[in-house]
């Protein structure tokens, strides 16, 4: 019953809001370039289906590429930090600097360095750079939160560094890594969209470019359709990572067992 | 089997845990290390295992360093792994081939009464069962020296007694040498052949009490008599 309510209640709210929106636009004759009615947005979506889907695919692929790159880089660096305090102290400040510098501010530089002819690589790099830090910090926290007794036990039984890492530290850190990935996945999309805006029209082909382009032409219904797709993509990324978390932790970790 | 000689240990926060701690545990003996909370019992056990280094004094293994099994106060299991994988850990780390490790771990789980629970995860087991997995893990490596750090302290009395009896059986069957840290007078009086009573911190040995045979049950006159002797020694150590 609760499961049904969890689905039907938000749906009912959405239908109510959309109905009220449709009515209000018609009643007050709001111009379509200010606020298009939901029916107009659906029409724009159907009319621009191919180009919107192409933009969605581009945004999705660039985000995923950036995100996966961030996962690999963050895991590698966190493992390196866990092996050497000296390396951590030498490099961690730069990871922080990378994080606190807004992606919009470094986007022009990255775009120039990588080149507009390889715009997708530059966008993926920017998306990855913003996703990188939460995965790094979560993994570092996970690697530091391993039960000391378990580490002692592994040491007592003569575990090598590699065994310690693979058999104890990494599995123990998994909930932290996955939590960082969930945050990272969603903000990779934010990073990608921000980078697309920074790249400007005429270069990128993703959803942010479609939003810029359609709003410049006052095709606000198409802008809304692209926005809805962007929201759906964000939710889908979060849902996919939540599913991955549940699959990997469901047998043993309280967070997944309870859900 | 193991000899601690004049051990001193001070932690970086300034706490002196042990001062001039000396004792010997001969092979195949079941020895309890008893004392009040914070007297340095666990520190002594970690030193004996080689997990800590003493500031002064020596730890010798006259017959060579034995294979050591260690059981913590908490089960200290890998929550992401089932009982079998947990029990297999020392074997995996020691490079024992997977099939052999699997068979040995399963056999050890059966010996501690967990046949049928090989694929249960720690969160699916009771506190007593988790501790049995922990003991199975310690025994899987076929240790000569078994070190236990208040392993039953967090368990209810019925489970504690059952596990105590199992431990005695395993000690006899395997010819183990056991160093058992506890703060329970009744537990030490029933389980061990010898009780080392420690002073409050900085801990050292205040009394070394050899217990006579005739302690077949927890309520045997011999056990009750041993409890009295241990309690007296503990009271004297606390007052000193």
| Largest sheet features of chain B | 6 strands, mixed
Task: Return the CATH class of the largest domain in chain B.
Answer: Alpha Beta
Helix fraction bin of chain B: 25-40%
Helix and strand sequence of chain B:
EEEHEEHHHEHEHEEH
How far the N terminus sits from the C terminus of chain B, by CA atoms, comes to 30 Å
Q: What would CATH call the homologous superfamily of chain A?
A: MetI-like
- What is the CATH topology of the largest domain in chain B? Rossmann fold
* Overall average residue pLDDT of chain B: 93
CATH level-two architecture of the largest domain in chain B: 3-Layer(aba) Sandwich
Strand tally of chain A is 0
Largest interface: A-B, 22 and 22 residues
CATH topology annotation of chain A:
MetI-like fold
In summary, what is this structure?
Chain A is mainly α and 259 residues long. Chain A has helices at 2-27, 38-47, 49-83, 85-100, 103-114, 119-144, 148-156, 161-199, 207-216, 220-249, 254-258.
Structure description:
The complex is a heterodimer of chains A (259) and B (240). Chain A has helices at residues 2-27, 38-47, 49-83, 85-100, 103-114, 119-144, 148-156, 161-199, 207-216, 220-249, 254-258. Chain A has 259 residues and is mainly alpha-helical. Chain A has one domain (37-258): MetI-like fold (Orthogonal Bundle). The longest helix of chain A is centred in the C-terminal third of the chain and has 39 residues, at 161-199. Chain A is flat and about 75 Å long. The mean pLDDT of chain A is 92. Chain B is of the alpha/beta class. Chain B folds into 2 domains: 2-66 and 144-239, 3-Layer(aba) Sandwich (Rossmann fold); 79-143, no CATH class. Chain B contains 7 helices and 9 strands; from the N terminus they run βββαββαααβαβαββα. The longest helix of chain B has 19 residues, at 221-239. Classes of the chains: A mainly alpha (259), B alpha/beta (240). Chain A binds chain B through residues 147, 149-150, 152-159, 163, 167-168, 171-172, 174, 251-254, 257, and chain B through 46, 49-51, 68, 70, 72, 74, 76, 78-81, 89-90, 92-94, 121-123, 141.
